[in-house]
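Tokens in:
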């Protein structure tokens, strides 16, 4: 498996049924800084992360490894054990959710996991923003797909990684506070980025932000939706999830 370079120091690893027990296309993002290498999310188990370890050993073996968990969903954190001796960062709410739900997520998704998924919680948490000024990387709370979601901004390469806050044909909604989601999307527009990356759709165009915002506002204000068949399928799932969470 080869990483796809999408910026001067940014690389995308994309997993699917060809290289994982989890069939849904899922990407993690690597940023090679001056002294640190940032591994953004850890996919579905330690076996997936062997590719990443090999990559780091080849590209930047003397760098300090910093792992970032963007939110509590299992397909973003179950490979944490592969980095148990390194710094693993998340929002405080992510830590709390993982501590509470890790075992139940393991049981529910055991057939889609890749190797060791032993519970390995983040060992550094934050609330708000966390800046690595010397590396040009900023982590910031960006509630949306889930309330604990964070995004990662590389202000040297002008890359914004938003995890599951954007996805095609539509993002899945796991939190009912949709105005906070809209606020996050508005904030994205204030950042000076040139490349927009999400977990399940890879590199996407900037219009994806506006489309998603329009979709959320239609739900908030109870306006008619003009959606494709594929989008309607996701919307149906979202309606049930929002009804359950309100």
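Residues out:
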């Amino acid at each position: 498996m080869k990483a796809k370079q999408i910026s001067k120091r940014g690389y995308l690893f994309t997993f699917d049924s060809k290289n994982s027990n989890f069939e849904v296309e899922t990407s993690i993002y690597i940023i090679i800084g001056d002294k640190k290498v940032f591994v953004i999310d850890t996919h579905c188990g330690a076996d997936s992360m062997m590719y990443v370890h090999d990559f780091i050993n080849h590209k930047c073996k003397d760098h300090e490894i910093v792992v970032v968990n963007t939110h509590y969903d299992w397909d973003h954190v179950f490979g944490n054990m592969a980095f148990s001796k390194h710094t693993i960062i998340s929002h405080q709410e992510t830590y709390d959710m993982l501590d509470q739900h890790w075992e139940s997520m393991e049981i529910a998704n055991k057939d889609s996991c890749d190797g060791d998924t032993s519970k390995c919680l983040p060992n550094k948490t934050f609330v708000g923003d966390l800046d690595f000024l010397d590396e040009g990387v900023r982590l910031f709370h960006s509630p949306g797909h889930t309330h604990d979601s964070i995004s990662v901004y590389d202000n040297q390469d002008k890359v914004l990684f938003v995890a599951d806050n954007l996805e095609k044909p539509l993002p899945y909604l796991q939190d009912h506070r949709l105005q906070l989601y809209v606020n996050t999307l508005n904030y994205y527009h204030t950042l000076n980025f040139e490349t927009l990356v999400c977990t399940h759709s890879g590199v996407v165009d900037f219009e994806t932000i506006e489309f998603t915002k329009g979709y959320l506002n239609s739900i908030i204000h109870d306006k008619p939706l003009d959606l494709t068949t594929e989008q309607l399928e996701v919307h149906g799932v979202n309606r049930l999830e929002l009804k359950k969470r309100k």
